[in-house]
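Notes from the pairing session

We agreed to fold both candidates in a single pass and log them together. This is the raw record for the first candidate, unedited. Please don't reformat it; downstream parsing expects exactly this layout.

Candidate A
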Amino acid sequence: MRFLLAMAASMTACLLICHDSRAEEPNETFGDATRLESGQLSVESTLGTGPDTVLGVEGLFGGIDYFDDDGSPLGDGRASGLFGVPTSSGEVQFKISGYPDEGFFGNHGEAGGYTVYVDVYDLFDDLVDTYEYDETLNPGVVNSFSEFGSNWINGSFDVYIDNTTVGGFGDDVDFYRFTGLPPGARFSATTSAGEGGEPDTALGLFNDSGELVGFNDDLSEETLFSQLEGRTNASGEAVLAVTGYDDLDFEGAHDEGGGYELAIEILGPSGDYNDNGVVDAADFTVWRDGLETGAFTQGDYQVWVDYFGQSVAPAAVAAPEPSACCMVLSAMLAMACRRRA
């Protein structure tokens, strides 16, 4: 029965690890890192130099008569724009929020700077006014704009956003905290292409104090994606950050944009500090020497004690799909019950 219980725990872990999701914003600092679900090994997101906007033009009764998501000719493809909007009352009114807040209630996590341009035409379709705003979008906030001109009555206007013009706060870096992993285990982390382009990524590993302890820019000369190896902490967690080249300080100072996926793979057993596939006395020596340099903590010693004697299991057969796992486990439990009866 102990074998079956262990197998049940393995099946549960499999179901968790197979899950992946989109990142939650904002996660631009170590302290705001997106905390992933226990056992989750991959996450998708987008690097961009500004917020993913939505744009709405208000009508006479305060409702949204015109809407756009990614229609601007400017920006990184995630900026909004509307053209030929009538100004029958001489008023130009519109709202800007973050995707996917189509109701303009502030239901979004987008953050960053942008510039909005407005071109106003009179009754005869002649350009009579142009103006622009440099603004910042914050999570949960909707920015509203309103202007009036007597020569705008029965005219029209264009409004469009550039989300790449306002630097600093608008730039993007994504921090993630992987949880529920084997403690003290070596892993490999890799970025790959996601939706919306292939950004030139840089990948960083951070210790429990938020210090950068591992870095990689390009996996090889043939790819712009990144890969590094590290070790989970004594709690089975790892904090990684993805940014664009050449933001070596992981502050978001880059011009890269596009989707990516970050995935990690566990390479060895917990407590195998010399990476030979076996948790033995030699790992204690590595831990002791690393404790003096700060590479290990006292908690890593307990991991070594808990997992002493374990080794890498041979990968003789592929792991079944989660649904198959559940069927096999159910059958084995049923057999065990019949035998006990």
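Candidate B (folded immediately after A)
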Amino acid sequence: MQGCHRVRKGMNAAMSLEELNARVRKDLAYIAFGGKDWVRPRVHPDGHVYDVVIVGAGQSGLGTAFGLLRERVSNILVIDENAEGWEGPWATYARMVTLRTPKHLTSIDLGIPSLTFRSWWESQHGEEGWEAVDKIPRGEWMEYLRWYRRILALPVRNDARLKLIEPLPGGIHRLHVEGSEPSSPHLLARKVVLATGIQGGGEWHVPGIVADNVSRSLYAHTSEPIDFSRLAGKRIAVLGGGASAFDNANHALAQGAAAAHVFVRRSELPRINPIRQMEYSGMIEHFHILSDEEKYEAMAHFFRHNQPPTNDTFQRACAWPGFSSIWERHGWLSGRRGGRRS
């Protein structure tokens, strides 16, 4: 009897999601989504010219694509180096239990209520299920993004890694792309949007005191795939005191690490997150209208004060018996491989 109940509940959830899909399609019809493209096409002897190529199919890239399609700019393409469903950090190196932002913040729905995470969640868990959620679970956010891409039929090419943007005469850009796509390794575009997230800020960096002195098998950057099962029963050191440091310490302890020590250069951990005010001040919604100077000033302010771990992340890590210490004022000056205990 219990088995029958589970099947019936699953069927109802699936039907509810189908109803949401129908609602999305109707909402899009109300705003004439998918109308005739108004942009005059460009012709080039080397092949098709996209009006826009978006690099990165994470949440920002998908949202940008939807925004362009709403404006009836449909000659676009999104490319991403990852396999389908693995774009962005959420299913790879992001190791927080939940998103750090409050659940009520809307984003890539662009004002369409049926496209919000809340609508997607309630279609499967009901309104009471939404009320029971404190913050959005990380894995569920990724599932939402996969659904968002499917329901909007966004034009994404996966397994396509951008190697070079080459300016051509006449305002055209040639994108050199490598990957599994059998067609030409070049794409032509009038405009290129880099929606590469945190990876677009530069290379992932491991300090030389570690990279030059410690065996590669004994350290990893948090952006890399890490086999945490190999750390079971071992003591680990985490260099850095930002939010991801505590995410990874917590994840390692949950996977059986014996102890996690977090080392921080600062005299004390930041206690106030300067980015939190963006969530209620209207800055998120209107950030794009600020001048470049104002944007840089705001970002410089955020970087000066740094982003501490959220309270729940900090408390979750501290709740583990193996989370034995936070070493403030303990920047690393040198490193070497130790004995058997390493």
